[in-house]
Input
Amino acid sequence: MSREESQIPELIRHLGGLRTGVARAISEQTGVAEAQIYGVGSFFHLLNAPDVKLRVCQGLSCRLAGSENVLESIGGNGVLASPCSCLALCDQPPAVLNDRTLSTWNDGEVVALDEAALGGAVSESRSDMAIDLAGEPDFSNRALNRALELGPQAVLDVLEASGLQGRGGAGFPAHLKWRAVRDQAETERFVVLNADEGEPGTFKDRAVLARRPDRVVEGLTIAARVIGANDVTIYYRGAFESLMDKDFEYRGVRFHLHSGHGAYICGEETALLEALEGGRGMPRLKPPFPTTKGLWSKPTLVHNVETIACLPEIIMRGGEWFRGLGRSEPGSKLYSISGHVQKPGTYELPLGVTLDELVEEAGGYVGTLKAFSPGGASSGFLPASERTRPLDAKSLAEVGSMLGSAGVVVLNETVKMPWAALHQLRFFAEESCGQCAPCRIGTRLLAEQLTQHLSSGAPLDAVDDVAWEMGEGSICGLGQTAALPLTSAMKYFPEEFSR
Amino acid sequence: MTKTLNINGSTFEFVDGESLLEVAQRNGIGIPTLCHDPRLKAVGACRTCLVEVEGQRRLTPACATLAAEGAKVTTDNARIARHRQLLLSMYLADHPIGQKNRGDDELLEMAERFAATPLGALRSARPGRSENVNPYIKFDAERCILCARCVRYCEEVEGVQAITLAGRGSLTTISTADARGLLDSSCELCGGCVDVCPTGAMSQRAGWPLLKSDTKKVRTTCNYCGVGCQMDLVVDPDANDGRGHIVRVDSPGPGTTTNDGNLCVKGRFGTGFVDHPDRLTVPLIRGEDGELHEATWEQALDRVVKGFAAVQEAHGKDALGFVSSSRCTVEENYLVQKLARAVYGTNNVHQCAAT
Output
């Protein structure tokens, strides 16, 4: 891949999407093979369907809010509407994407959301939290200055003491990543911010970007200075465009802003790097990890928005302070909660609160709790009996689930579990990159088998085998976990699957 | 110092840069592969070559994992066997199976070997190329397992990049830009995609449906140019009243011949002349009557010698020039310049592939 190739997605966009002839025009301009350009454009939904103006979210929380009816009434009059995957607006369903403007459906109209609305409902401002979404943005750079005074080694020690783990889903200790990049012999290094939030049920990063951009920019600058990078790339999902700025320079660090073009898989860090380099967003084999060979094969620190936003207060108040914020694991944590609760939103609480405590923060349940998904679609479902289990990585792993992105979706007694599982399966089938067979075929097999089961009672006899193989054989986390919504629903609610 | 690793309990030497698959293959340890081709960069996408490496939680692709000192590798156990069988069963669910149109399908052969049967059957179709109009190559999207050998071959070996993986998820397919026909792309019709395709999704328009058992392979040297590419003529021995007919041309496996398994459009597809009715089989000499008449080689060469001598006599030695064909080998080219210089005394000699 060359730097020229990295411009391909934007060039396609500026020519109005992947219409006939666009690949050839860009090929003549750049010298990149037109088949390659076509392959890239066809991968991304915001590029490959240029006539679609409106997209209606079919994520679980939006389906609970009747988004399939919205889809029926929204099209027509020359406006082409299509269903789409979770838009990270689960707190204000049903979500609609109007071109690249995140909107909601209100009284029969598409209403664009401004920055305040995109912030959504959050916890009241509390100065004893790491991010404090409701707090006043602070551009004084106190933490950055402090970090520069401390020097890289001391910052790394603070980070280690804090116990901060990646907040994107994998939960890898942050200080190990930083040290791995800093210790590379290669001196050209990069920081990449993963703001391609797309895990169904998750919208915390959107809230951070809307409410606390100060934390993000300061955290990124600290990271760049500590690991020795001059360039920071922010890869944000296309739907967040109204929240984002153009390229800028800040305290000697160059910030490059890169809009995603509609592919959930690009939230996987190596797929994201592929997309940044102008390729089809298909995950790379690991190892090598991005810390050794990342963007342009250079050592790269890739972090989730929330992880980066924790940094300023960690620097200001010390690692022990941050560690002490958590109950069962270090830190405060942003939980996105949606579905059957009174006040869907993003709540910052001690890591390890229970569902009941989280829902109390969100104004209480709507109806009677039946099941919940604790960490995005990939975490599957848990029954109401797990409502007092700490929502942390270890406790959720014990029951075969995961904290993941902490996108919690609450389902009450009105929801049928096969229906809920089917929507999650369809999401994964839609968003699989298609590179490896276990995921590409497995997601579709499961969705088709469940559909047939629901319509004609066909047995679900291949599910265990397919799920096992997806877990063992898939290249990345998408395929490895994509069967969980179905297998967990069948495990905890077997009576709903036998006729 | 020699480096070693352990595979299935035995110790093997390796050199830096070798993959687990290469070490295993060199030592006769079978690991199934579908997306692998030694000419291409390993991508680990088909997942058939997954093995266990001690200390690693996940199965790892042997093709894309470098051999490391002291590594302990297992290529066959209950977990790997289950993985292979289920993976192949999933491939089969997404793959039409009909003995009639089977051809050479590595996937089906492999499935048989590992006793895999289809896990359900998928109904949703994948899009093929809509206007795929070209004389030689056709693509059956339903048979494609998206190993992308063809795409990578087209880019990495031929440097042509006529085709790409297009679309996403289960709708992923192989396509040209804007799904145009190959003739309206940068394709040079080398047919390498047909040759590397493990399932027959990429196939020749002519000659595909024959089963292996009905044909005979004949190794020969391509006579279109002087490179000397080796090729395997796949012959239907019963055609033409038993004289046989070339149904298609295969290239020998990579790494076995000078052409490394590669052929160009002429060698791969240009076999129509072999038993064409217009093909010249004897020399022809134009007579006083203006018509061509069959002759012997002696008569024909006599005529040439006389003609050359007449030109030299009338116009001098440098009135003659010799241009040899790109089909000539280096030895033949040597003889042509010898003929020009030593026999006819002129330096006017050229080879048509020289510019």
In short: Chain A has 23 helices and 15 strands.
